[in-house]
Amino acid sequence: MAIQWIFFDMGYTLVNEDLSWLVRCREQAATAEARKKGVTALDIYRGVIDASQHYLPQFRTVIDRYGFSWAAPYRSEYETLYPDAASTLQSLARRYSLGVIANQTAGLRDRLRAYGIADCLAVVASSWEAGVLKPDPALFRLALREAGCAPEDAVMVGDRLDNDVAPAKALGMGTVWIRQGFGALQTPRDAASTPDHVIDRLSQLIPLFPA
Question: Helix (H, G, I), strand (E, B), or coil: what is residue 169?
Answer without folding.
Answer: helix
